[in-house]
Each structure stands twice: as C-alpha cells, then as structure tokens.
Amino acid sequence: MKPRSKFERTVTASNERLSTIGSKVVEWAVRKVLSHYAFRTSGHKCTCGDCGEKFDYKGKGKSVRCPHCGHRLQVVDTLVRNKAEAGYFSTLEAIDGLQVQRVFLLKAHYKKGSPMRMYSMEVCRLWLNAQGRIALTSRNRTMGYYRDCFNWASSIELKQICDVHWIISDTYVYPHYAAIPELRRNGMAGRLPDCHPMRFMQSLLSDHRMETMTKAKDCKAVAYFVSHTLELDRCWQSYKVATRHHYRPADYGMWCDTIRLLERCGKDIRSTRYICPVNLKEEHDHWLKKVNAMEEKRRNKEQMEKTKRQEADFYRNKSCYFGIVIRDEDLEISVLDTLEAYRMEGEKMKHCVFRCEYYAKTDSIILSAHDLKGNRIETVEFSTRQGKVIQSRGICNSNTEYHARIVKLVNDNAHRFLEARKSLA
Questions:
Q1: How far is CA 125 from the centre of its chain?
Q2: H or E stretch covering 47
C-alpha cells in the first residue's frame, strides 16, 4: 500500500528505522505471557516444562516451585510429552515524534526431558501521531480463518487496519516504555491502565476527560471508560461530584448502571446521597427493582390500552358464557368475565394468561378455580372446539393437589358451555 498523506509517509520512513527488541523484553514476555507447567504422571514424577528436569511432588496443590530452576509451575496431571502454546505481547516506543505500539507473537514448545524452546516474531505496528491519527504497518494476512494467519515471510509494510489487528494488539505491554511528549504532558507515566493501550493513548490525546482521570491516577475509571465512551458522556458530571468527595467505586460498570437507573427514576445524579453509596450492589439492586416495577406498570398500561381496542370482540364472543359457575363441596370455578379479571388472574397466579392474550382466543374459555374462602387455586382453559379442558395451571404454571379434581369437574359440565355457545349462534 502506497502512502497517501504526509502522516503515512512519515510512518513509512520511521518504520524502516526501528530496531529489534532486546532480550530482556523477551524474558519478561516469557514470564508474563506464557504458562509454565509441571507435567506430573500417576507416580508423582514431575517434569519441569521450563528446564526439563525431573522431581517428585506428592502434594495436592495446583502449583509448585521447581527445585532446579526455581520457577513457579502449574501442576498438570498428564501423560502428554509435548505441548505448544502461543500468546501476544507488545512494546511502546517513540520515534520521529510518533508513538508506536509493536505487537509480537510469542510461541513456546514444551517437551519432557528438554528445556522449553521459544521464539518471537513481530506481527504488526500501530502508529499514533500527536493529533490522534492512527496508521498500521503489518505483515500480509493470508486467507485463513484464524487470527494468527499471517505470512511470516512477508515484510512489515503500510496496511489498512482491520479487526484482527485491534484484537491482537489488546495485550500485555512491556512496563518500561517510551512516550512522546504530548502523551507525557497529558499524564501518561508509570503503570498503564488495564485496557487497550492504543485506544487509551488515542483517547488521552483527544479527550480532556481522559486526561483528567489519568492525572488523578484513577486507573480503574480510565480502563472502563476507554471502552465505554457513551457511559462517560452520561456519567461524567456524576463522576466529577463523586471524585470531589473522594468516592471511587470498586466496580465502575455497576456504578454506571446505577447512574442510569437513577436517571430513569428521575433522581438527582449529582447528589452524593445517590451516587456515593456505601454498598454499591445493594443500591444497584434497589433501583433496579424500582425500574423493573416502573417498566412493568408501563407494559401493563400499554397492554390494557391494547385490550380496550379488543374489548368489543371479547364481549361479543364470550358474553354468552358469563355467569357460568361450577361448584362442589370445596371448589367454585367461574368464567372470567372482564379484561381486568384476566389481568388480575395473570398477576396473582404469575402466568401468561393476560400477557399472551387468551381473552382474544375465540375457541376457548378461561375459568378461575377458587376454594370457598376465595383463594385462587388454578386457572383453567376450556376448548369449545374440542369440548374439554386442554390445560389447568396453578401458581407459576404448576399443578396443585386439586388439579385432577378441577379438570374432571369442568369436563363433567362441558355441556353447559356447548349449550351457551348454541344460544349465541
């Protein structure tokens, strides 16, 4: 790809001047990126995946320190003699006034009885200038499906950035890095927040709010808001108030959700009474229940408005069955004769007789079974087409001890519904 702007020409020229990384960087990546195994057999004989030496370990712990090389190892009970692993890491460098993130693929091969063999290859470089523009130099991608499908024989040249490059560059960064003066001016120093390094640096140059949080050393807030910019727009004023009162939530995701819930409930999202809770989870759950109740009320209102438009059809099709009551010594089963009765039945019995618009079904009748004290027991659906009960449900669609008795009682009185239907005709 040919450079088409002054920025891309500068990137192309600087790309040729980068040198290879040092051995200390690779040693750090081996410790940070790769797993370190102790291969244990059934005889409690362990082989260190790093140095290849053998030792005995009969403990039940998941990790052990190799007595030969001193490395902390993850104990794996297996007879496998060979294992391969790969991971990405990156470094940050400054050259010609540009910030560059260099991304490397680190591969390791473990073989019992032999020291770990590993090697690293540079995959791509993400470039950033002081104005926040980004460019990419990378090896060629092959037609493979996986993200590691690069042509390792190709050179690192100017390319169009794609999703794969963003994914593999979101990885560990070598802690000893160089930054351009503009990033240092905006607070980039010391430990980096746990987020995509290039996204963070780009936000630091273009968003004053990110600069404020970075200089305040609020790494958790930076890490969250780098990937949730819309949340930052909504919660920025609340964040400033909370910070002024030295409040920093342990979970920014839950805190931002709480701010959104408070806004839905019409509360002041700049009041420390609401935005600085002692127990964040308890406060979040409290306002979530409030919002759910409001949403349920809204849905019920919309449902009732919809049912009102169907009210005439409901009375025309079902009015002939109103007043039918079936009794025995313990039970009373009556036809639901209003739309409000359907809503109350669904609400009290915690099922979908109202939500699923059973009142609009022309070939069925809904009845409510009570005891003599008026307590609801089951909701019954009688099919006028089949002439029998097709379902009877208690609370939360469960069956009660009266289930068989209710079904038999309604079926024994099926002729009453059929006679009422004939009178309608």
A1: 29
A2: strand 45-48
- Closest of 318, 361, 353 to residue 338, by C-alpha: 318
Contact, 198 vs 177, CB < 8 A?
no
Please identify which residue in the block is written with the tokens 């009969």: 58
The Cα-based distances of 57 to 82, 285, 363, 418 in angstroms read 20, 47, 73, 80
d(CA 380, CA 390): 8
- Residue matched to tokens 């260099």: 102
> Tens digit of pLDDT for each residue in 288-320?
999 999 998 888 788 778 777 778 888 888 888
Q: Which two tokens stand for residue 20?
A: 């290879």
Is residue 388 within 8 A of residue 413, CB to CB? The reply is: no
Structure tokens at 205: 């140059």
For residues 89 and 168, give the distance between their C-alpha atoms in angstroms, rounded to a whole number.
9
Radius of gyration of the chain (CA): 34
CA neighbor of 77 nearest in space, from 57, 96, 94, 93:
57
d(CA 180, CA 182): 6
Instruction: Name residues whose C-beta falls within 8 Å of residue 172's C-beta, 6 or more positions apart in sequence.
Output: 29, 32, 33, 88, 89, 90
Structure-block tokens of residue 89: 């890491």
* Segment 63-76, tens digit of pLDDT: 899 998 888 998 88
Helix (H, G, I), strand (E, B) or coil at 54: strand
> CA-to-CA distance for 13 and 30, rounded, in angstroms?
31
Instruction: Report the run of H or E that residue 232 belongs to, with start and end.
Output: helix 229-244
- Whole-angstrom distance, CA of residue 173 vs CA of residue 425: 80
Give the integer Cα–Cα distance in Å for 316 and 394.
Answer: 28
